[in-house]
Structures are given as structure tokens and as C-alpha cells.
Amino acid sequence: MAKSSSWPKIDAVFSLYESYGHADYIGEPVSQIEHMCQAAQLAEQEGYGAEVILAAFFHDLGHLFAQENELEEMDGFGVMDHEKLGAEYLRELGFPELVALLVESHVAAKRYLTYKNPEYFRKLSDASKETLKFQGGVMTAAEALAFEADKNHQLILKMRDWDEKAKLTGIPLPDLEKYRKMAKDLLDGPTNS
Q1: Using an 8 Å Cβ cutoff, are 57 and 41 in contact?
Q2: pLDDT digits over 8-43, tens only?
Q3: Residue 31 pairs with which residues in a beta bridge?
Q4: d(CA 112, CA 178)
Q5: Read out DSSP for 87-136?
Q6: Whole-model pTM above 0.70?
Q7: What is the CA radius of gyration of the chain?
Q8: Which residues does the UniProt record annotate as the domain HD (predicted)?
Q9: Integer Cα distance of 109 and 152 in angstroms
Q10: Could you tell me how far CA 172 lies from the centroid of its own chain?
Q11: 143, 118 in Cβ contact below 8 A?
């Protein structure tokens, strides 16, 4: 069976996971790939479809770029604007806008939640508190209103919840082939598969 035209794009993104996914998830007790797989598994367990599951799987993709490119860092806590880097890369590959939006917005969700609920800040890991300083800090009231106006803001908050929960040790990695196929089906669309 010949590979569809989407396979080179999928190979490109998954090669980042294969090459750099086992690196430490900066300041957390899991690797990058463990963290992103756990987030995807949480989305799947809650019954979400491919776009949301893949957004959870790709949400920290921007951190993997740092392993092969010299990018501005957050004092040893990962790459500046990793959410924007990952989202732009996914757009360039042709993934649906919802996937890119959820990847791009998971940092804004942290900023929003620290504004809305000061207790949320206290529950953040030390690494997440440090990165918040580089990510714009707590939202202003005006920023929070704009965030709430986004029709996807509840889903963005879900993404953040999975991001926070996806830091457990000892969770077996799923077969990445499942996500590769999901990505191929999404890129190819229902009429081209």
C-alpha cells in the first residue's frame, strides 16, 4: 500500500517525538513524551474526538523544537512561546485550526486560571510557577474577558486540566502508531483515506 501524501508531514512531526520525546519534561517527574501521551489519554478517556486528542498529544510540541534549534529559553524551564511555535508548525502541516488553537491556548488558560482562582496558582508545580513569569503572568481583567469570549474557552480549560494532570510516573506509554494513524486520518480527511 502506497503512503498518502500526508505521511511525510506525519513522519516529520513524529520524528521530533522519536528523537527528543524521552528528554526530561523540564522540572517535572516525567519525560516530554510521557507527559503528552498522558494528556492525550485523558482526552480520550473523556470521550473527545481525534482533533482534541491530537491537540492534547501535540500541546507541548514546541518544547521538542528546542532540542534541535537554538531558541530562547525560560531560564532552564523550556522554550519561550512553545505554544505558539507548536501551533504554527501544526498549521503549516495542514492540521485543522481547532488542533492548533488548543495547542496555542493552553498557556493562556494557565494565565486565566491564575487570575480567576488564586488557589489555582498555589496548586501549580514549581516549574509551572516559574514558567508563568515568562508567559505573561496572571491575566488582567480585560484579558480574562477576552479569553471568556472565545467560543472554545471551556475546551481550552479542559486542555489545561489535562496538562496539569499529565505528570504521573509509572504510566505505560501507549503505542504511538495509534496517534500516527489518527493524524493521518485527520490530515487526509474522510474522502481521501
Answers
A1: no
A2: 889 988 988 888 777 666 666 778 889 999 999 999
A3: 24
A4: 32
A5: HHHHHHHT--HHHHHHHHHHHHHHHHHHHH-HHHHHHS-HHHHHHHHHTT
A6: yes
A7: 16
A8: 33-111
A9: 11
A10: 19
A11: no
